């Protein structure tokens, strides 16, 4: 499954995961020491949504920012009895 928003194209970005040990100075320690830095990826918050595209209902991955902005048309819900 792709990790990209199909509307705005938002995808994963790279960053670092920093591991620290020790007690912070304000808690009475000698300070935090960095013991390791590893690369990691930050993924966008993607949700599967039913969207009307070219008159057909498709299920696509959309980021929550696009959902809040309302950048797509949702299909009308049919009430059940």
Descriptive key words:
81 residues, mainly beta, putative 5-dehydro-2- deoxygluconokinase like fold, two-stranded antiparallel ribbon, elongated
Your description of this structure?
There is one protein chain. The protein has one helix and four strands; from the N terminus they run E-E-E-E-H. The chain is mainly β and 81 residues long. It has a single domain (13-69), classed as putative 5-dehydro-2- deoxygluconokinase like fold. The strands form two sheets. It has a two-stranded antiparallel sheet with strand order 1-2. A two-stranded antiparallel ribbon has the order 3-4. It is elongated.
Summarize the structure.
The chain is built from one helix and four strands.
What's the assembly state of these chains?
Answer: single chain
CATH level-two architecture: Single Sheet
Would you report the number of β strands? 4
Report the portion of residues in β strands.
35-45%
Low-confidence stretches: none
Termini gap: 35 Å
What is the domain total for the residues? 1
Please render the helix and strand layout as text.
Elements: E1 13-21, E2 33-42, E3 46-53, E4 56-63, H1 64-69
Antiparallel strand pairs: 1-2, 3-4
